[in-house]
Write a structure and sequence with these properties.
5 helices, 129 residues
């Protein structure tokens, strides 16, 4: 495992939300391609409402879990794709979630863990910051 680096500062609510989202993605990916699932927008929307997060706060939380996954897995940040920000924040959040699902799979393979276990390791890093 790589040396943990601090993720984006998001606070406890953002860490709870990010943990819920990455665990949701781990479960959802067991059912097939995340990008094709109608559960993705509904699940993200429900989590955002539950935590009372705006689109900008959601984006920060998702980018934070991205940073945590990169840190715990030791994946090379220089070669890992950077999600392209699009003008529509709703589309950007959905694209980030699909990207995060792929990253979660890559991180899990590197760590030799299931996606759910890799998600737990990344969430623990978020909470420790």
């Amino acid at each position: 495992m790589a040396e943990p680096r601090p993720a984006i500062e998001i606070g406890d609510t953002g860490a709870d939300f990010a943990g819920e989202v990455v665990r949701f993605l781990a479960r959802l990916s067991d059912e097939g391609p995340v990008g094709d699932s109608l559960s993705l927008p509904f699940g993200l929307s429900a989590s955002m409402k539950r935590y009372g997060l705006s689109l900008d706060e959601t984006i920060r939380a998702v980018l934070s879990i991205r940073a945590a996954l990169l840190s715990v897995s030791g994946l090379d940040t220089a070669t890992e794709p950077v999600p392209l920000r699009v003008a529509d924040p709703v589309l950007f959040v959905l694209n980030l979630a699909v990207y995060l699902d792929g990253l979660l799979g890559r991180a899990a393979r590197v760590l030799g863990l299931s996606p759910g276990e890799a998600a737990d390791v990344a969430v623990e890093l978020l909470r420790s910051n």
